[in-house]
Design a protein that fits this description.
- With about 200 residues, the protein is an all-alpha fold.
- The chain has two domains: about 1-65, Orthogonal Bundle (Arc Repressor Mutant, subunit A), CATH 1.10.10.60; about 70-195, Tetracycline Repressor, domain 2 (Orthogonal Bundle), CATH 1.10.357.10.
- Helix content is about 75%, strand content about 0%.
- It contains ten helices and no strands.
- Helix 2 (about 15-35) packs across helix 5, helix 2 packs across helix 7 and helix 7 (about 95-115) crosses helix 8 (about 115-145).
- The chain starts with a helix and ends in a 6-residue tail after the last helix.
- The relative contact order is 0.11.
Length: about 200
């Protein structure tokens, strides 16, 4: 039975899945999570709703997989030899246009994450936990190199600081985050909090 399910689920090619994910992200930016429906995805992508459910199980899983697919580059491939270099390389994974699009995506999904337990669980398991694991590896390398004290209290808050800078840029300044803004934010706020020289 599991073999049959696997065969069914593997009918969509990676290229077709990428097309579907792009359509989901476009719809998410346009209407937000709550108004996004499997019917709308099926219509936009000329797919059958049955295929979408068979492949992804439901809206939450499809949206989170699309968000994960839309993430730029691989943070796990970044290792510049310094924490400052790693964080700057992280910022450089996206250009300003991509950051603006991702900011719109997060606005489209932020409230829904709090209101939909299935979305929150998928988001936590497939996006937050893997990101946290990557950040922990980057920070551990910085600790091993002697850049950051192992007992530095800010270590537990790195991701909070980064997300805070990203989100509040739109909230307080009414502008999307940019590479220049986030790079300056790293140097002025994040690295000093970790006890790292930002120059």
């Amino acid at each position: 039975m599991a073999e049959v399910a696997t065969q069914r689920r593997s009918r969509i090619t990676p290229e077709r899945a990428a097309e579907l994910y792009e359509a989901v992200l476009d719809l998410l930016r346009e209407v937000g999570y709550d108004a996004l429906t499997m019917d709308a995805v099926a219509a936009r992508t000329r797919s059958s709703k049955a295929t979408l459910y068979r492949q992804w199980g439901g809206k939450a899983e499809l949206v989170v997989k699309a968000l994960r697919h839309g993430k730029p580059g691989n943070f796990d491939e970044i290792d510049t030899g310094s924490l400052r270099g790693d964080l700057h390389a992280l910022v450089a994974l996206e250009d300003d246009c991509q950051m603006e699009q991702n900011s719109a995506l997060m606005r489209g999904i932020a409230m829904a994450i709090h209101q939909n337990p299935d979305l929150r669980q998928a988001f936590q398991e497939q996006l937050i936990e893997p990101e946290m694991a990557e950040f922990r590896r980057v920070l551990q390398r910085a600790v091993d190199r002697g850049e950051v004290r192992p007992d530095c209290p800010a270590l537990d808050f790195l991701l909070h600081m980064l997300i805070g800078g990203f989100v509040t840029r739109a909230l307080l300044d009414d502008q999307p985050p940019t590479r220049a803004f986030l790079t300056s934010y790293m140097d002025a706020v994040v690295l000093p909090a970790l006890g790292v020289d930002a120059h």
